[in-house]
Write a structure and sequence with these properties.
- By secondary structure, the chain is an alpha+beta fold.
- It has one domain.
- It is built from 4 helices and 4 strands.
- Strands 2-3-1-4 form a 4-stranded antiparallel beta sheet, with helices on both faces.
- The relative contact order is 0.19.
- The mean pLDDT is about 85.
Length: about 150
């Protein structure tokens, strides 16, 4: 899930302190969009993972817990990224990633050991929780959840 063709620019060297690079993420998502018709994979079940920008201390505890699925910056594999929602303030954005059902348990293991709670399943955003996201990030995640639910019901 970390294909070379989608490797984010300057990652991980210049992506320190869990600071995301929105322009690089958008380019990756656009490239992924163009490659999707070439994919031979059918639709599989899964969940949407929400990653808050600058919500992790890069301690790397999620790496062993997830068998490397979550990296040192607490980011899921870049092949799973499908949206970046920018906040009104610097470093207040969120990254959305599609985690296939067979890999959910690995992400869940990383969630359970995270010191700063940089990740949350989008379908749990309205439940009482301790997520490391700031109020702007929580608002963005809630809005994304509502939009996705509405689209699913259409």
């Amino acid at each position: 899930m970390r294909s070379e063709v989608l490797h984010p620019e300057n990652y991980p060297d210049e992506w320190d302190d869990a600071r995301m690079h929105p322009d690089a993420i958008v380019r990756l998502i656009e490239k992924r969009h163009h490659l999707l018709p070439l994919s031979e994979h059918g639709l599989i079940r899964g969940r949407i993972l929400c990653v808050g920008e600058e919500t992790d201390t890069a301690m790397g505890e999620g790496v062993p817990a997830s068998d490397g699925l979550i990296d040192n910056n607490y980011l899921p594999p870049w092949d799973s990224w499908f949206a970046y929602l920018a906040g009104n303030e610097p470093s207040s954005g969120i990254l959305l990633a599609w985690i296939p059902e067979p890999l959910e348990h690995k992400v869940q293991a990383a969630l359970e050991v995270a010191a700063t709670q940089p990740l949350i399943w989008l379908d749990q955003i309205n439940q009482p929780h301790q997520w490391g996201g700031n109020p702007m990030q929580e608002r963005l995640a809630r809005e994304a959840y509502v939009v996705l639910i509405e689209r699913h019901q259409e």
